[in-house]
Amino acid sequence: MSLEKITQVTGRAVPVPGDDIDTDRIIPARFMKCVTFDGLGEFAFSDAKAAEKAAGRLHPLDDERFNGASILISGSNFGCGSSREHAPQALYRYGFRAIIAESFAEIFFGNSTTLGIPCVKMSKQDIADLSALVEKTPGVLVTVDLTENKVTVDDVDFKAVIVIPEQARKPLLEGRWDSIADLVDGLDDVKTRVAAIPYLAVK
Amino acid sequence: MGKTLLDKVWEEHTVRTLPDGRTQLLIGTHLIHEVTSPQAFGMVRDLGLKVLYPHRTFATVDHIVPTDQSQEPFSDPLADAMVKELRKNCAETGVTFFDLPTGKQGIVHIVGPEQGITQPGTTIACGDSHTSTHGAFGAIAFGIGTSQVRDVLATQTMAIAKPKVRRINVDGKLAPGVYAKDVILHIIRKLGVNGGIGFAYEFGGSTFDAFTQEERMTVCNMSIEGGARVGYVNPDETTFEYLRGRPYSPTGGEWDAAVARWKSVASDKDAVYDDVVNFKAGEILPTVTWGITPGQAVFIDEAIPDPKDLPEKDRDTAAEAIEHMKLPSGTPVEGIKVDVTFLGSCTNGRLSDLQEVAKHIKGRKVAAGVKAIVVPGSQGVASVAEKMGLAEIFREAGFEWRGAGCSMCLGMNPDKLVGDQLCASSSNRNFKGRQGSPTGRTMLMSPLMVAAAALTGKISDARKVFGIG
Questions:
Q1: B134, B244 in Cβ contact below 8 A?
Q2: B287-465: CATH, from 3.40.30.10, 3.40.50.170, 3.30.499.10, 6.10.140.1670
Q3: Of the candidates A22, A33, A50, which has its C-beta nearest B82's C-beta?
Q4: Total domain count for chain A?
Q5: Does A163 contact chain B (CB < 8 Å)?
Q6: What CA–CA distance (Å, rounded) separates B296 from B283?
Q7: Which chain A residues are closer than 8 Å to B312 by Cβ?
Q8: Nearest CB to B197 within list A25, A48, A106
Q9: d(CA B117, CA B114)
Q10: pLDDT tens, position by position, A40-96
Q11: A51 to chain B: which residues are within 8 Å by CB?
Q12: Which of A197, B126, B280, B439 has the highest local Cβ count within 10 Å?
């Protein structure tokens, strides 16, 4: 199985500010009553958007200045809570191809990497600067560069360091982010290990 | 240098190191449910793979099952389709299914232990973040996404990096009216909802030594709410006694061999930890959450904080929480009016939770205008509770006694908050919209505190309501 080598993601960005944005917020549970992931994109942040509207404000994903964004910018502990892969699936299907945040919850991070969505950490200050820049010039092209671990912005003097664990960066760069092929390669070793563990060995 | 339980279990279950540096880790026991598995079965089929060890995967239905209707088809056609899909997938692949008519159905994290499937020294994965519950038995248990459910179905392994281990000691005796739920809410309050990222939490100390197996499950269940994907307690006699005689527990000579193995996986006395944190049981009081993350919690005698009094990093989320909860800073949590009370979930839907509450509410009544529901965690729990007369005590007090499932923990079935109702809940998450209404409000607490709220119609100190201590 050959997968795309993800070296960089370039696109418009949208700041969705806030810490601890959980996966219920990203995709409310009622939209998980489905047996495929198709069609989840339109429900991303569904209730958050409605809540902002009710409060007379505009959720960033409803703000047409950010239409077509493929890079999401957020705060710390992004994707906390439920293990639902429906969350990164919804973001991917909405059009997001990279996420920049102060930190990520672990299960969400793994789920996203498996879908080929780089989740990169950036400092709080850099996130604030980048968000301000994007707010000021919506539509400006942002590049998340995994080869040099940096984020840059077209035609603007902005450069920030990103952090992504090597165990996610390497498979993204090498096009092995979906681990199933590697796992299947190890099946002979799996059978050997199973036979050596008392509670698993077939009696 | 001694090893932790995590070191030992990891070593035994390591198949190999993958090219990206992660471990290909053998998952001994795989648990599945209807919400996160259908796509995984589809992916396995699409890739031309098969379920490698069907006898190591166990299924049940919990998230979408109605708790007030046992007859199929369910009134919600989507829910009905999901149950049928799981039934079909299990039948086609040979996976054991604790289906609705078996009398063994329930919340996956209650069914595994109840059946004796959850055992010390094993690795467990399930497409649900509260899989950390199983760590109470000294298992290393991970919540996983659907692609990983696919990986485990097809290869019985997954790709994962080894976490660091933080030892969390709680020592001393809990005061009367203070429960395991208060312990974990307190730990999360102190260490933060993201404090556990990258760590497995090993819980120990004399408080944990004295805990029952079910109390340990309550704590491990919410490890993930503190950011730790894995939480565990070293197995001991309490664990072994719990497992003795359960349907999937070893028997005869195999039992003794198993117990010897289980004892050997516990962390060594001289184990080295990446971090150690100590708490005193005596400092913990009944705890309730006031916001939109499980870390936004206070003791029952405290008030909702003013964001400006909090550390700078917590202020924005606190302000957001205050707006959502419609509870101004300075409001004492004791006395906040509740509309709904929910007793149940994989955190607190076990027999001991129901027993503790029933003991105290006998002969009392739910306050007028409060909707109080009790949802046993499994058909097994429900059946025993009914035989013991607990169901009757709840019904007589004005609680609705329901069938088993996840219910109002996440509102994927018909049990949902309406509008901005405020719910006193024994579940694990108070996220915005978590209980089925986008504007619904959730306050998390122990089962007895939920009961106190049900009887008084407001958030109350269970110790006063029930004359404890």
A1: no
A2: 3.30.499.10
A3: A33
A4: 1
A5: no
A6: 18
A7: none
A8: A106
A9: 8
A10: 999 999 999 999 999 999 999 999 999 999 999 999 999 999 999 999 999 999 999
A11: 432, 438-439
A12: B126
pLDDT surpassing 90 at residue B1: no
| Other C-beta atoms lying within 10 Å of the C-beta of residue B75 | 11
Token pair 């060594």: residue:
B268
- pLDDT at residue A2 above 90? no
CATH of the domain at A109: 3.20.19.10
Domain boundaries, chain B: 5-160, 164-239+260-283, 287-465
pLDDT (tens digit per residue) in B326-341: 999 999 999 999 999 9
Decide if A40 is inside a domain.
Answer: yes
For the stretch B271-323, pLDDT in tens is: 999 999 999 999 999 999 999 999 999 999 999 999 999 999 999 999 999 99
Interface of A with B in 98-127 (CB under 8 A): 103-107, 110-111, 114-115
Question: Which CATH number fits the domain B5-160, given the four candidates 3.30.499.10, 3.40.640.10, 3.90.1170.50, 3.40.50.300?
Answer: 3.30.499.10
Other Cβ atoms within 10 Å of B282 Cβ, number: 13
The DSSP bridge partners found for residue B143 are B126
Q: Do domains B5-160 and B287-465 have the same CATH topology?
A: yes
**Yes or no, beta carbons of B429 and A24 under 8 Å apart:** yes
Phi/psi for A142 (5° steps) reads -105, 140
Average pLDDT over residues B266-271: 98
Confidence class of residue A1 from pLDDT cuts 50, 70 and 90?
Answer: low
Supply the DSSP string of B321-336, one letter for each residue: HHHHHT--TT-BSTT-
CA atoms within 13 A on the CB side of B257: 8
Contact between A199 and B194 using a beta-carbon 8 Å cutoff:
no
A106 and B438 in contact by Cβ < 8 A? Answer: no
The structure tokens listed for A167 are: 């165990």
Q: Are B417 and B77 in contact (CB under 8 A)?
A: no
> How many angstroms separate the CA of residue B381 from the nearest CA in chain A?
25
Per-chain mean pLDDT for chain B: 97
Q: Name the residue among B469, B346, B253 with its Cα closest to residue B33.
A: B346
Domain assignment present for residue A137? The answer is: yes
Alpha carbons B68 and B415: distance in angstroms, whole number: 9
* Helical segments of B53-137, H only: 77-93, 108-115
CATH number of B164-239+260-283: 3.30.499.10
Is position A103 within any domain?
yes
Which pLDDT tens digit goes with each residue over B165-192?
Answer: 999 999 999 999 999 999 999 999 999 9
Among residues B240, B236, B249, B175, the alpha carbon closest in space to that of B209 is found at: B236
> What does the pLDDT look like over B210-236, one tens digit per residue?
999 999 999 999 999 999 999 999 999
State which residue of chain B sits closest to A179, comparing Cα positions.
B159
Is residue A147 in a domain? yes
